[in-house]
Design brief:
eight-stranded parallel β-sheet; about 45% helix; alpha/beta; TIM Barrel; Maltooligosyl trehalose synthase, domain 2; 25 helices; three-stranded antiparallel β-sheet
């Protein structure tokens, strides 16, 4: 098996192609990287900036240079001694532009008779496929026959062969789909999707034929030695994740395989999965958490309460998840409830919803993880004792036949409820201390003790030494350096609270949770361009779904939020006060950044460096974290480091690149040093501020 000593994540897009990745390969080798780790490279929706919206899994994406450029990149990486890890997306495909996805296009034209009808998870028993693309709920598509197409408002959809005659309404009735208002999608959709995104239709890779068609090209690259590792996106959405990984391992026995599995604190990776570990959100939680001072918790809780921010985490989370089950994933919940026999449909829906709201983890994998399922049922019973009978029925069906359609769909959907309810809603509502609000994190636990860190690191070395570790990804809510500076606030909570009171009195945002999040974000990214902060706050406000949302806008509130960054920056007195505060925490923030990076690069696991983060990177949630990287500047700094320069710890970030380079080079040149794990315990008055360990007899790491 080819396990890289480290990886470097690059976000490929039409503006950064296979050729551009080849252009930085030599730099990555000199930096000390073991493998280039690429975002999805299969053909994606037109103009896609991320590649997770695959339209054709049988070819390398032409917009990235196509097959020839892919081969050239692979050959260069081999020549340089670097591996290639590719991100794959088995759960869904893009159907936003129907003609771009020939499989989906064929299904729209031929319905159940299509050779690809079984490729997508469509509820055919409910009639024609419902496509929520019209502008409003009352919209009626205007019909006109034009050649072999039925022309609607946007000319996107086909007609089935043999239906192009007769009146427009007669043609419409013979179609295999219906266009409906986009608002009806959440409640009436007839195909499974990725979370709440109706333009990403779920794929049935549990079918061996579908697996072969969707994975054949990538597996050919693995067999040819062009690809040495696979990162698997969102396995929780699959019908049978364990079965999927077993089939993947059988077809790629020598590949390094890591799963984007979000583990709750204390949750193990399913033992039946033949993977090398997770993509590292658990490690992120542990490494970032040990740099947070738990002594700051009371002051942050008091400040949040004073400002009107809710501090009962589990209540906020339950409210957010209920919003998802009752308003966003209504169609999915109803489809599950319909599988519960002899129960009133509405009571069945409520029982299913309450169970998913109470899930302690993203999903269970029955019969593995039975304790998590039991905890969900118990939580639902406590919340709704009036649903005891339907919950008992649900529990019995799930346990008796964990491979039933009901069990499969409930487990697929629970992860969607948790992700949308917790990551994408709660984390923007529960803003007491945003450094903890990270994918895989638990904002209710204020930091991580040194002894717990040692225990978890030793467990990773013993169980999954080849798991990926990370501090920043394309999905993190904020980059590692943003989070590191924010962590300093836990060490000066009183000073920060006084500052927030002053700043809020001068120019606050009229929504408490967003207001507190905005000040934390501002000081942790200062100086930040107002446009970047404006875009972030707009997204944060809509994800929170308190005063506005993506679908129901409060225009006046959104205008006030949009004006806030410029108002703050242009207020000389206010901006000066903020700048003075940031100057006091900037140095400790740099120290946190260097410390956590050193830990990530030397602790158990395979460390990933997200593009550009070898220097300071004060990014926010996507798309902010996908901004272009200045590799010319990084090459220049690396050249100076290779010449022996020992840079100062300053705003250039050169000191971080020095740490990254030295640690990566040591891993690559002396891999035997990075085996084993043994805690070292400090003594003295500052012992609690020291994290130290050995990997082998020849390598010791200490961070204070």
């Amino acid at each position: 098996m080819t396990v890289p000593e480290s990886t470097y994540r690059v976000q490929l897009r039409p503006e950064f192609t296979f050729a551009d990745a080849a252009g930085i390969a030599g730099y990555l080798r000199d930096l000390g990287i073991g493998a280039l780790y690429a975002s999805p490279v299969l053909d994606a929706a037109p103009g896609s900036t991320h590649g997770y919206d695959v339209v054709d899994p049988t070819r390398a994406r032409p917009a990235l240079g196509g097959e020839e450029a892919r081969r050239e990149l692979s050959a260069l990486l081999k020549e340089l001694g670097l591996g290639l890890v590719v991100d794959i997306v088995p759960n869904h495909m893009s159907v936003e532009v129907p003609k771009a996805n020939r499989w989906w296009w064929d299904v729209l034209k031929h319905g159940r008779d299509s050779g690809y009808a079984s490729f997508f998870d469509i509820d055919w028993e409910r009639g024609p496929i419902l496509l929520p693309v019209l502008g409003d709920d009352d919209a009626v598509a205007e019909l006109a026959v034009d050649g072999d197409e039925l022309v609607y408002y946007d000319h996107r959809f086909p007609i089935a062969p043999g239906t192009g005659t007769g009146t427009p309404q007669e043609v419409h009735e013979r179609q295999h789909y219906r266009l409906i208002g986009w608002r009806r999608g959440n409640a009436e959709l007839t195909y499974r999707r990725f979370f709440d995104i109706t333009t990403l239709a779920a794929v049935r890779v549990e079918d061996p034929k579908v697996f072969a068609e969707t994975h054949g090209e990538v597996l050919r690259w693995v067999a040819d030695g062009d690809v040495t590792g696979l990162r698997v996106d969102h396995p929780d959405g699959l019908a049978d994740p364990g079965g999927y990984f077993r089939r993947l391992r059988e077809n790629a026995p020598g590949a390094w395989i890591v799963a984007e599995k979000i583990l709750h604190p204390g949750e193990p990776l399913p033992q039946s999965w033949p993977v090398d570990g997770t993509t590292g959100y658990d490690a992120l939680r542990e490494i970032a958490g040990v740099f947070v001072d738990p002594a700051g918790e009371p002051d942050f809780t008091a400040l949040a309460n004073e400002l009107g921010v809710k501090t009962g985490y589990h209540r906020v989370e339950a409210e957010a998840r209920r919003l998802v089950t009752d308003r966003i994933l209504v169609a999915e919940v109803r489809r599950i409830a319909a599988q519960l026999p002899y129960v009133d449909p509405e009571l069945a829906r409520q029982a299913v919803a309450e169970t998913m709201i109470a899930f302690p983890v993203y999903r269970s994998y029955l019969p593995e993880g039975a304790a998590h399922w039991a905890a969900a049922i118990d939580g639902a019973r406590r919340a709704r004792p009036d649903l005891a009978e339907p919950l008992a029925m649900l529990d019995a069906v799930m346990r008796k036949n964990p491979e039933s359609e009901l069990a499969t769909r409930l487990q697929q959907t629970s992860g969607m409820v948790v992700a949308k309810g917790t990551e994408d809603t709660t984390f923007y509502r529960y803003t007491r201390f945003a450094a903890l609000n990270e994918v895989g994190g638990n904002p209710d636990r204020f930091g991580l003790g040194v002894e717990e860190f040692h225990r978890l690191a030793a467990e990773r070395e013993a169980g999954y030494p080849a798991a990926m570790t990370t501090l920043t990804t394309h999905d993190t809510k904020r980059s590692e350096d943003t989070r590191a500076r924010m962590a300093v606030l836990a060490e000066v909570p009183g000073e920060f609270a006084r500052a927030v009171r002053r700043w809020t009195a001068r120019r606050g945002i009229d929504e408490p949770s967003l207001n507190l999040l905005a000040w934390q974000t501002l000081v942790s990214t200062w100086p930040i361009e107002p446009a970047r902060l404006r875009d972030y706050l707009d997204k944060a406000a809509k994800e929170a779904k308190l005063r506005t949302s993506w679908t129901d806008h409060d225009e006046a509130f959104e205008a006030d939020v949009a004006a806030w960054p410029e108002d703050v920056v242009n207020d000389a007195e206010l901006a000066g006060d903020i700048d003075g505060f940031v100057r006091r925490i900037e140095g400790p923030g740099y120290a946190n950044s260097l410390g956590q990076k050193l830990v990530q690069l030397t602790a158990p696991g395979v460390p990933d460096v997200y593009q550009g983060t070898e220097l300071w990177d004060f990014s926010l949630v996507d798309p902010d974290n996908r901004r272009p990287v200045d590799y010319a500047a990084r090459r220049e700094i690396l050249a100076r480091v290779l010449d022996g320069e020992l840079p100062e710890i300053d705003a250039s970030g050169a000191a971080k690149l020095l740490v990254v380079h030295n640690a990566l080079r040591l891993r690559r040149e002396h891999p035997a040093l990075f085996r084993g794990y043994r805690p070292l315990r400090a003594e003295g008055p500052a012992a609690a501020h020291c994290l130290a360990y050995t990997r082998s007899a020849g390598l010791a790491v200490a961070v204070t």
